[in-house]
Design brief:
Structural class: alpha+beta
Oligomer: single chain
Number of helices: 5
CATH superfamily: L,D-transpeptidase catalytic domain-like
Order of helices and strands: HHEEEEEHEEHEHEE
């Protein structure tokens, strides 16, 4: 009986914490403004797509060659993801290929998630991803990998993903609502290009076996999502290579 009471108390505390997150975020002027400007528009767009508001789960997919950020939504874990909207990436730095050291100006490539909400960013609003992840730590330069890689507003970057102040309002709001609906981790997957028709842009690197092997490893995760419209379970081997499960 005591264990059961503790279990329900824990669930209740988690629900309160999640609800408080939305409330706390909306105390920031930029977040409050984003809700005032964008919430009704997002509700209408989701309704037209037969998607829920607030979203139960979102997924962010980014393509460097096409300079596009895709925002996907699904109702529950048993459903497949549906595309909600695409946002143009308005500035870029570095070249194709993963980020392997601090100061290389590269945008990371690989499988990440949002690990920090920044409502008072220097670039309006920002969602920080968990770069460097385990794969980056193994394959990158030890101790000198850099960090603080974000999806943010404005149109400047030295390794981040900028999508303008107007667009980040929508993505940030959707991320708040997904987290407030119980999504613990919002996945952010970053690819060099769309593998179906965009890989011509990377052919100039075809003699770089290490880079091509890395891209082929990422392609397995890309192909899985393209086929099933749900995400594979992703882990990292001791050599830094991603492995996939269902």
């Amino acid at each position: 009986m005591i264990r059961m009471l503790l279990f329900f108390a824990c669930i209740f505390a988690q629900d309160i914490s999640v609800q408080n997150f939305r409330t706390e975020q909306k105390e920031y002027p930029r977040v409050k403004n984003a809700y005032q400007e964008k919430e009704m528009l997002i509700k209408q767009s989701l309704k037209q797509a037969n998607l829920p508001y607030p979203p139960n789960e979102i997924y962010i997919r980014i393509f460097k060659t096409e300079q596009v950020l895709e925002l996907w939504v699904r109702n529950q874990v048993s459903d497949t993801f549906q595309i909600f909207k695409e946002y143009k990436i308005c500035a870029s730095s570095g070249e194709l290929g993963p980020k392997r050291r601090e100061g290389d100006r590269q945008v990371p490539e690989g499988f990440y998630w949002v690990d920090k909400f920044i409502p008072m960013s220097n670039f309006h609003l920002a969602l920080q991803i968990n770069y460097p992840n385990k794969s980056d730590s193994i394959l990158g330069m030890n101790g000198k990998l850099g960090g603080k890689i974000c999806i943010h507003g404005d149109c400047v970057t030295i390794g981040c993903i900028p999508i303008t102040d107007d667009c980040i309002k929508e993505v940030y709001l959707m991320a708040i609502e997904a987290k407030s609906s119980g999504q613990e981790r919002i996945p952010v997957h970053i690819f060099p290009a769309k593998y179906k028709n965009g890989m011509q842009a990377v052919q100039r690197f075809e003699k770089n076996k290490r880079l091509n092997d890395f891209w082929l490893n990422l392609k397995v995760g890309y192909d899985y999502f393209e086929k099933y419209k749900c995400l594979p379970k992703i882990s990292v081997k001791k050599n830094g290579i991603y492995q996939y499960g269902t």
